[in-house]
Design goal:
This protein is an alpha/beta fold. It has 3 domains: 27 residues; 352 residues, Metal-dependent hydrolases (TIM Barrel, Alpha-Beta Barrel); 55 residues, no CATH class. Strands 1, 2, 3, 4, 5, 18, 19, 20 and 21 form a 9-stranded mixed sheet that branches. Strands 6-7-8-9-10-11-12-17 form an 8-stranded parallel sheet. Strands 13-16-14-15 form a 4-stranded antiparallel sheet, with no helix packed on it. Helix 5 crosses helix 7, helix 8 crosses helix 9 and helix 15 packs across helix 16. The protein is globular and about 70 Å long. The structure holds zinc ion.
Length: 560
């Protein structure tokens, strides 16, 4: 802290204390007319926990036109009123990492307290089409997309015709060939599609390089340069995350950190818990030091020690298991409801039902040491909680896309899609007291809003309970809120969310989901976004630069 700041703090405290006195004395004057106003919706008498103002007190909220219009100690009157007595009232959770950008997945996430679901690690393309489809079909939660690098590669290298549809993006990802080394001309075309997406309001660039390890390094740098030029983040699934070299976890982080330093781009690291896994004790100090040196690196994690994908995935290729530090007995095979017991059994399962869901424990939450490692990621300072939810899949392998509720009996997904956020509230806050309620709410709402607010100024109105903020609000019982989804039976909505309000409209009211309304709004950067600055890499070096550098060197050496 500098001397000026040292002096400023007591002055600010004194001013705030003085303002506090004035405010409490005057509070009845401005709220008197408010109490007689008829709001669209009021939330009455809950304990507000707001991570921005740090307010933690019983208040009522008046909502008009999808925004918070009043926060008052008095009882407010609304066309609709929701009772919040004995409940916590918080900003709705913002999930930076949702691959379930379809209605049924969002309904499940609503019970988890999510009001904004964004697909940023993956994303979509073309950006105008992705937003138009969501707007036409309607979404229960606010939604948004990054420009999808994997899709751009699939278009250029595998001839996929992109149309912004969820299923097209899945198909583009499933194709072979998009992962390979591109020619310089192809890379330029891929980067051109990404830049166009950013100009059209994408929230950043989604970089699934971990699924295309052979892809060009210069293309990854190029994507970061675009992000830096337009002032948007990149969202990376690290290229390397093997438990052992080569292609190890440290190398994966080295690339992200180096590119942040080389380009000045805001590099967001996805699911620190699952990529760093048992090397978290080594990775965490690396990241902290990189951040301390001023690199713009942000981090997210989900509070589970296992990941999930289909048994036919490359991840479970017997030839590659060793390098990843995985044994076949670490794999829980869902259709058989048991762990795989031998390599022969794994090979047979991959052959007979490649789309059968499988869960792979990278950290065992029942082992105290390994849970402590998981918590290094979950509790990492300023890490956002982000679910990495997948879409729900039927036993026949088809994704659940149509709006059905409850989900079909055989629908399967990793439990994080139903409980990532309530697990924080129930386990980390209430049961284990590892986090304050305020801090858990901050990691799930204000932190993700701040990660995005340079790229999408509307995020300054989210993640906060204040007058003028978007009315994305959750009301839950802090004594009972809990995740219910398990690996064996993930299809169980979380419990404890009493009301969930999206853009001023309650989609969960008194614990009941309203499937008839789609209040979700787009979260999008400016359409026609312009570069924010010219980066040093692009500014040609002038003679003056050289002369200045020489002069500085000579001065440093004591020469004239
Ligand atoms: Zn990922």
């Amino acid at each position: 802290m500098t001397m000026a700041r040292k002096l400023a703090v007591p002055i600010i405290v004194a001013v705030l204390a003085f303002c506090g006195l004035i405010l409490s004395a005057c509070q009845h004057a401005p709220t008197a007319p408010v109490a007689s106003e008829l709001f669209d919706l009021v939330v009455l008498g809950g304990k507000i926990v707001d991570p921005d103002s740090r307010l933690e007190a019983v208040r009522s909220i008046g909502i008009n036109g999808g925004r918070i219009a009043a926060i008052s100690e008095q009882r407010l009157v609304g066309k609709i009123s929701l009772d919040a007595a004995g409940q916590v009232v918080a900003p709705g959770f913002i999930d930076l990492h949702s691959h379930g950008m379809v209605v049924p997945s969002m309904w499940m996430q609503a019970f988890d307290g999510v009001t904004t679901a964004l697909d940023l690690e993956g994303g979509s393309l073309p950006i105008p089409d992705a937003y138009a489809i969501a707007q036409d079909e309607g979404r229960p939660l606010n939604y948004g997309y990054s420009a999808n690098w994997a899709a751009a590669r699939s278009a250029v290298l595998a001839g996929t015709k992109l149309d912004g549809h969820f299923l097209t993006n899945l198909a583009a990802f499933a194709k072979p060939n998009w992962q390979k080394l591109a020619t310089p001309a192809q890379s330029a075309e891929i980067l051109g599609l990404l830049e166009q997406g950013v100009q059209q309001g994408a929230l950043g660039i989604g970089l699934l390089v971990g699924y295309a390890r052979e892809s060009n390094h210069e293309e990854y740098v190029g994507a970061a340069q675009i992000a830096a030029r337009y002032g948007v983040p990149t969202f990376t699934h690290l290229r390397h995350s093997n438990a052992r070299e080569p292609g190890g976890v440290i190398e994966g982080h080295e690339e992200l950190i180096a590119v942040a330093a080389m380009t000045g781009a805001h590099m967001h690291l996805c699911h620190l818990n699952s990529t760093a896994a048992r090397l978290l004790p080594e990775v965490v100090p690396m990241l902290r030091e990189a951040q301390r040196r001023g690199l713009r690196i942000t981090v997210e994690a989900y509070p589970y020690g296992a990941g999930s994908t289909v048994i036919g995935s490359q991840l479970f290729d017997p030839a590659l298991l060793d390098a990843q530090g995985i044994s076949e007995t670490d794999i829980f095979y869902v259709p058989a409801h048991k762990r795989i017991e031998s390599r022969e059994e794994l090979i047979e399962a991959r052959k007979s039902n490649p789309s059968g869901p499988a869960v792979i424990a990278f950290l065992d939450e029942d082992n105290a040491n390994q849970r402590a490692m998981l918590d290094l990621a979950v509790l990492y300072a300023d890490a956002a909680i982000a679910s990495d939810t997948l879409w729900w899949v039927r036993r026949n392998g088809n994704p659940v896309v149509e709006p059905v509720w409850p989900l079909p009996e055989d629908a399967y997904a990793h439990p994080r899609g139903a409980g990532a956020f309530t697990k924080m509230l129930g386990r980390y806050v209430r049961e284990r007291k590892q986090l304050s309620l305020m801090e858990a709410i901050r990691k799930a709402s204000l932190v993700p809003a701040q990660i995005l607010e340079d790229a999408a100024p509307q995020m300054k109105r989210k993640g906060r309970i204040k007058v003028g903020a978007d009315a994305d609000i959750i009301v839950f019982d802090p004594d009972t809120v809990i995740d219910k989804a398990t690996y064996a039976n993930p299809r169980q909505p979380a419990e404890g969310m009493r009301h969930v309000i999206v853009a001023g409209v309650p989609i969960i009211r008194d614990g009941t989901l309203d499937t008839t309304i789609m209040p979700g709004q787009p979260v999008r950067g400016p359409v026609g976004r312009l570069p924010v600055k010219s980066t040093t890499a692009q500014r040609p070096i002038t003679e003056t630069d050289v002369m200045t550098a020489v002069r500085n060197l000579r001065a440093a050496a004591g020469l004239r």
